[in-house]
């Protein structure tokens, strides 16, 4: 038994869905699962594009066998060597020992590092602009370093306009029968997971994504086949625009995310009071997060979406609350920039978190402004803090009005 879907003439999706994995890369929660996409192209010669994670290898091998229907496999194209896509290389080659593996020099080097054995005579090393004819279909290879690893490439089928885009244009979320972005309500049900996938997996490498988008603009792409999530065959501009924005670190929307670190609810109360004041002033695109119970991957995703961020942190061990510090550190690692940040601190005898958060932002983050109007509360919110919160809300509104999206 095999479970495949036709993508376009001659091309079939043969991947698998994983609902058992809790943490992608053992760090990012994936409550909706994930898909590992692989594709089989049937021509005078046959080709498989990338493999799958070990967890779905058994059904995957059945899928390949079903589509090949007795034919041999001529080429195994590896666009991306990360084990969630390359773990099953040897399993494929055991069954199709005549297949030639097509990939970049760096990818073959990394296969050796990971212990994947490919005989030298079975390797076809390609570089930018090289092409390979399968008969009717002509494949062109395009290097895509750091999207998401240095060895990555994408493959363009110049015959039908299909781009095998590796990690680019992927998303968290299992497909569960659907295959195309136009078969789901992507903007309602998928965009948050797509953003969280992009920002946490590739977000650091915006300039490299911009390079790839520049190359993509020179070819006539009709279908995008990523390694995770739905395939794009309609309204490609929607997703290309998101990628352009994310990789330039330009916010999608005017709005405020308020992230609070609160031990006994007092800093939380201040965060909620500020949220109310923003909504009273007409800015209702406000999201409030407890940093202690929101996985940082969701916070990073929101930081890429919205134009303004408020960090409200209790002082802890004379420092920034550790989980808030972790969020700041992740913002640095993932190159969050072009944002305006408001700072609210709380402390009972020596409040230091506000000054330390400002120092971190000034020294470690690029192109992030700190609002002058800051709030410092002593243990609990009091009537006397109201005017400071009003000033911060006014300053945020003023800054949002000046922001160009
Ligand atoms: Fe889905 Fe970078 O691997």
Question: What class would the helix/strand composition place it in?
Answer: alpha/beta
List bound small molecules. Answer: MU-OXO-diiron
Number of helical elements:
12
Which residue ranges are poorly predicted, with pLDDT under 50 across at least 5 consecutive positions? none
Q: How many β-strand runs?
A: 23
Return Rg in Å: 24 Å
Q: What gap, in angstroms, lies between the N and C termini? A: 50 Å
3D shape = elongated
Percent of residues in beta strands: 15-25%
Question: Can you describe what's shown?
Answer:
The protein is α/β, with parallel strands linked by helices and 405 residues long. It has a seven-stranded mixed beta sheet with strand order 1-2-7-8-9-10-11. Strands 17, 18, 19, 20, 21, 22 and 23 form a seven-stranded mixed beta sheet that branches. A hairpin with a 4-residue loop joins strand 12 and strand 13. The mean pLDDT is 97. The structure holds MU-OXO-diiron.
Secondary structure topology:
Layout: E1 5-8, E2 11-13, E3 16-18, E4 23-24, E5 28-29, E6 34-36, E7 39-42, E8 46-49, H1 57-68, E9 75-77, H2 83-86, H3 89-95, E10 100-103, H4 105-114, E11 123-125, E12 131-133, E13 138-143, E14 153-157, E15 162-164, H5 186-202, H6 206-216, E16 223-225, H7 236-247, E17 253-261, H8 266-280, E18 286-290, H9 296-305, E19 306-316, E20 319-320, H10 322-333, E21 339-347, H11 353-364, E22 368-370, E23 375-378, H12 386-402
Parallel strand pairs: 8-9, 9-10, 10-11, 15-16, 17-18, 17-19, 19-21, 21-22, 21-23
Antiparallel strand pairs: 1-2, 2-7, 3-6, 4-5, 7-8, 12-13, 13-14, 14-15, 19-20
Helix pairs in contact: 5-9, 6-7, 8-12, 9-10
Residues 80, 82, 84-85, 148-149, 167, 227-228 line the site of MU-OXO-diiron (FEO).
């Amino acid at each position: 038994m095999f479970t495949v879907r036709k993508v376009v003439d001659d091309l079939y999706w043969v991947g698998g869905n994983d609902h058992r994995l809790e943490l992608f890369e053992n760090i990012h929660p994936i409550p909706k699962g994930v898909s590992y996409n692989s594709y089989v192209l049937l021509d005078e010669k046959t080709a498989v594009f990338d493999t799958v994670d070990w967890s779905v290898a058994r059904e995957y091998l059945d899928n390949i066998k079903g589509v090949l229907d007795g034919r041999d496999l001529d080429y195994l194209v590896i666009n991306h060597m990360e084990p969630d896509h390359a773990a099953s290389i040897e399993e494929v080659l055991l069954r199709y020992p005549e297949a030639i593996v097509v990939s970049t020099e760096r990818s073959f080097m990394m296969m050796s590092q990971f212990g994947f054995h490919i005989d030298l005579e079975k390797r076809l090393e390609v570089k930018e602009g090289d092409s390979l004819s399968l008969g009717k279909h002509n494949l062109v290879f395009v290097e895509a370093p750091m999207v998401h690893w240095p060895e990555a490439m994408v493959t363009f089928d110049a015959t039908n306009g299909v781009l095998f885009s590796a990690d680019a244009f992927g998303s968290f979320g299992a497909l569960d029968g659907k295959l195309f972005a136009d078969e789901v309500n992507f903007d309602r049900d998928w965009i948050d997971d797509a953003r969280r996938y992009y920002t946490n997996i590739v977000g650091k490498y915006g300039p490299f994504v911009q390079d790839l988008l520049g190359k993509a603009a020179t070819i006539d792409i009709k279908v995008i086949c990523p390694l995770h999530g739905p395939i794009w065959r309609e309204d490609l501009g929607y997703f290309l625009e998101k990628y352009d924005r994310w990789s330039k670190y330009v916010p999608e929307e005017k709005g405020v995310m308020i992230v609070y670190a609160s031990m006994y609810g007092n800093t939380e109360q201040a965060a909620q009071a500020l949220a109310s004041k923003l909504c009273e002033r007409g800015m209702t695109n406000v999201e409030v997060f407890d940093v202690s119970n929101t996985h940082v991957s969701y916070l990073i995703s929101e930081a890429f979406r919205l134009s303004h961020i408020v960090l409200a942190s209790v002082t802890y061990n004379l420092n920034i609350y550790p989980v808030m510090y972790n969020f700041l550190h992740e913002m640095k690692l993932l190159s969050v920039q072009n944002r305006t940040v408001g700072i609210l601190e709380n402390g009972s005898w020596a409040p230091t978190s506000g000054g330390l958060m400002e120092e971190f932002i000034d020294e470690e983050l690029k192109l992030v402004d700190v609002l002058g109007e800051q709030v410092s509360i002593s243990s609990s919110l009091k009537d006397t803090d109201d005017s400071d919160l009003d000033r911060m809300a006014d300053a945020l509104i003023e800054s949002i009005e000046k922001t160009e999206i």
